[in-house]
Design the sequence.
């Protein structure tokens, strides 16, 4: 099944070339294409992409999405791709050999609407001692084990955006990625792909985990600070509030405060100082996530009707 590897990027000229090189090798091996979406870059990204497109045409194409936001850029990819499967790869992720074929394999089953694979962390500098595995998911680490499986909401996390594929027609039919959620410029919200996975599953499509589809996620040194992790968890909580309100309603959103976050909200605050206490940092990250969730509820509730508008569109099955 022909696939389009879609890489969305903005002002990342220093790193996107490695992702493109890996994607090109995979596309040539699997008979696919690579589509790079420049999301309004202002650095040297456009010049770099033009040179690469001239060198690697027709396998590599470049398009531009002026509306800033990862969901808008991904929707541009869905609109202009030529393959039957959209394999999304982050601009700081490098696929391992066989990645694309393994990621596309689940789509031989017509019920499958989405598939995702492992995301392994590749640190560009040695990680600090306080960075324990409990914090790795904040860096997009994703590994559900060695066995393929169906991923259902509430049983395990849906695949992460650094390494996820969607059946093009199914994603388009239920409205694509919502621009009401997710990363937009300096607003570091999350859950774009989670929101789409949920709508697809609700409509009868299946989400599969493909363990042989592996990418290395490059971790830059600027992320390896306690402040970065605290902010990341706070935004994660805010994003979760928007997702739950959109897709599950007010009562579910409020119940989550008691069911998931009550203990974290009662935790004693911790301000990290050298030497950083790893266990206390994890607890503080969870507390910040809980506080972010409450803040997200407060901001999102007044615009609930707007938030839920496209979430209530008919979802498509994988067929």
Sequence:
């Amino acid at each position: 099944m022909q696939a389009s590897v879609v890489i969305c990027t903005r002002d990342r000229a220093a790193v996107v070339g490695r992702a493109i090189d890996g994607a090109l090798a995979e596309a040539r091996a699997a008979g696919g294409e690579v589509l790079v979406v420049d999301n309004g870059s202002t650095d040297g990204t456009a010049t770099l992409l033009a040179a690469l497109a001239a060198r690697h045409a027709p396998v590599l194409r470049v398009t531009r999405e002026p509306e800033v936001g990862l969901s808008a850029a991904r929707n541009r990819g869905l609109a202009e791709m030529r393959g039957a499967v959209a394999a999304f790869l982050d601009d700081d992720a490098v696929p391992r050999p066989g990645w694309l074929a393994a990621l596309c394999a689940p789509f031989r089953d017509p019920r499958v609407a989405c598939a995702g694979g492992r995301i392994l962390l590749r640190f560009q500098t040695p990680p600090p001692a306080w960075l324990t595995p409990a914090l790795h998911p904040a860096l997009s680490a994703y590994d559900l084990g060695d066995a393929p499986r169906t991923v259902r909401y509430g049983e395990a996390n849906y695949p992460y955006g650094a390494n996820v594929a969607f059946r093009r027609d199914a994603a388009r039919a239920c409205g694509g990625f919502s621009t009401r959620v997710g990363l937009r410029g300096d607003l570091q919200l999350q859950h774009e792909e989670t929101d789409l996975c949920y709508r697809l599953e609700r409509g009868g499509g299946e989400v599969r985990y493909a363990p042989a589809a592996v990418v290395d996620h490059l971790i830059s040194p600027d992320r390896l600070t306690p402040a970065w992790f605290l902010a990341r968890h706070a935004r994660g909580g805010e994003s979760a509030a928007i997702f739950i309100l959109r897709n599950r309603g007010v009562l579910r959103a409020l119940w989550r405060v008691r069911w998931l976050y009550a203990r974290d909200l009662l935790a004693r605050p911790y301000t990290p100082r050298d030497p950083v206490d790893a266990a206390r940092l994890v607890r503080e990250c969870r507390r910040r996530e809980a506080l972010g969730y409450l803040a997200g509820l407060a901001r999102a509730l007044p615009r609930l009707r707007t938030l839920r508008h496209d979430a209530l569109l008919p979802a498509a099955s994988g067929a």
Notes: The chain is about 40% helix and 20% strand.
